[in-house]
Design a protein that fits this description.
4-stranded parallel sheet; 11 helices; alpha/beta; FAD/NAD(P)-binding domain
Length: 420
Amino acid sequence: MTTESKTRIIIIGAGYAGLVATVRLAGKTRKQNVSITLVNAADVFVERLRLHEMAASPTIPQKRITDILDGTGVDFIQGIVTNIDLQTHSICVQSNGNDIHIEYDKLVYALGSTIDRESVKGVGEYAYLLNPSGKRSVEQLHQRLIETNTAGGRMLIVGGGATGIEAAAEFAETFPNIHIQLATQGQVGDFTRKEIADYMRQSLTRFGVTFQENTRITELRADTAITENGSPIPFDICLWTGGFAALPLARESGLTVNERGQILIDPFMRSISHPDVYAVGDSAQPVEQPNAPYRMSAFVAAISGAHTADCLSKVLRGQAPKPLSYVFYGQAIALGQNDAIAFMTYPDDKPKHPFLTGKAGYNLRGFFLRFFAVLPELEKRMPGALFWTGKGRFEAAKRRAGRSQAQTVQIHMIDKPEAQ
């Protein structure tokens, strides 16, 4: 009698997408012959939505990944994935100075994204980033903010998206002796509606933040940013929040990726070039939009992680998976420690009324921050706890497109003159 070998699943990356995928899959495959290994560089779950808060106050508690995984049966390896061998179905992990080679049957790629520090000269050398670890990351930024606030100085934040706006408000309120200037290629908040952008600008102005709009930075030096027209913007400390890109590992490994390095996936979260590799969160980009924008966000990361677990568990049971489909609900942008603006984005990620501002908006944002923070533990207790609406929108859109195409063909045949 032979014993059936286990299906080996490796998940690399333990952000919002990777950790949700891990614990949900562990719960859904508990009675199956499956082994799951999670690999992550840090031993704590990093709440990326709060990195600007951690830079202002590093006392924010963090949860250990081993505590979250306790009781799931998942093996955890702390280390950095240095290579993926798609031919041999194996990865190489650098852990505690050693190279560990692990084979897989299914691989879930959840390494997320990072700030693009290569496109503009000097960013890698002179800018701080909202990264949890590494060179010029959150911990070093906190110390530099304290020093600059004590002496009084200037801070330049590059990037007028949600991250740059939240960081500018948080730092301006926490470090009042630092003059903060926000530089952006367009207008501050132009990624959303004018009413929302106006409210954010007013809030930032109350903190003394000034704006350098319609300004493209082409080079960063030790204490000066050089704009496209050659004008200098002096600073004592620079935070770079503009431009996200996926890590280069996927491209280097031979997976099919887009120009940003994201793995191109089908509606079932599988790589279009290597279907034994699944990709989630910021690391992925669907070749067919799931009838809602797929963008870099904690919301999309969590849903894509949960959906990947659902797809994999169905495949392991010999069932057909469902395509990815969802709707958006809303968004909230923090404006310091007592203010935020929250708004509805249902169903297609387009901002609309009603708006919640001030403490009410801040509390609503806090609720969703806490939800995303406890979601992995919630999934551990109740696999499948994360539920979202709009799951049938993708298939419905395909049916509508098919009917429309059939009608077009019929009209073409009616209009086509008969052969003489």
